[in-house]
Amino acid sequence: MAELNLKPQLLTFRAWCWAAATISSRTLHIPWDEAGCLCPVGDLFNYAAPGEETFCSEEVDGRLCASSFQATSLLNGDRAHKSNVEVLDAHDLRLTDGAYEEDVAAYCFYARQNYLKGEQVLLCYGTYTNLELLEHYGFLLNENPNDKVFIPLEPEIYSSCSWPKELLYIHQNGKPSFSLLSALRLWTTPPSKRRSLGQLAYSGSPLSTDNEIQVMKWIAKKCNLVLKNLPTSTEEDSLLLSSINEIQDLHSVVELEKAISASRGEIRSFLEANKLQNVASGNNLLLSSKARRSMERLKLAVQWRARYKKILLDCIFNCTETIDSLTCGKYLPFKLA
């Protein structure tokens, strides 16, 4: 910043926050600079209300399933199709709102629907997770089809398959992604049989009942481990949200005094950090816009982590249900020879 000879008012933390928010929320992706670029006129578009977009990460899973047979040729040592797979993936996974087009040296926007004269053209937020929406735009969704959770994976899992890391995740409904299941089925297969079973794994098909049970147990164990290592539980998050809602709904200092005196744990720490732990300063909570904003931010953070845990819990439930079904013999896919 010193080399830029910026004015003193542009060297403050507040100025940095403004610049970071501008880059985070207003810039457009370009291949040669990770910061992106500012695009005159292009940044005037408003965004469609969340929930109205039609493109979600589960659609990506479906398209990957349709193209996965091409990927198996890479596993078998055939590089002839590599460029075709890369082109297909780039086309399928790219959001179609806009992109920088090298042939015309311009950033081009594409209509995702037919617009009538006079209608407002809206952009899509994209396939953002709740954490990304919260970080870049300051909100999250109760039901976000693009939300996902990444669990820790052994390095050998990445080396045993050709799926990119960003496709190995758990969906917002608690179901492992197509790519994650494919990768784990192949990884849990003995190395000597991976080549012969590669096409079956990349097609999305279970390799055997025992293999599928092993995969589901592994995923459930990982999810349990992640939950165990988190600093708070689902029950604690639920109680904290109830406390926040209770305080936000109060309209008198008397009511607030009772809530503050009964507060414990994280909500108590929050009140103390904002100097709101006594009745006199309690007026500030009722009147101060800064205090209300801080409380709302705390609520958003707790809501996010509660949804994060719910995805992990749903995944454990789904895996357990699948294991029970396989154990009862209701589902008997191809058996290993």
TrEMBL record:
Q: What is this protein called?
A: Rubisco LSMT substrate-binding domain-containing protein
Membrane-spanning residues: none
Domain Rubisco LSMT substrate-binding residue range list: 174-312
InterPro entries the UniProt entry points to: Rubisco_LSMT_subst-bd, SETD3_SETD6_MTase
PANTHER family of this UniProt entry?
PROTEIN SET DOMAIN GROUP 40, UNCHARACTERIZED PUTATIVE METHYLTRANSFERASE
The Swiss-Prot or TrEMBL record annotates one GO molecular function as:
protein-lysine N-methyltransferase activity
Q: Where is the signal peptide?
A: none
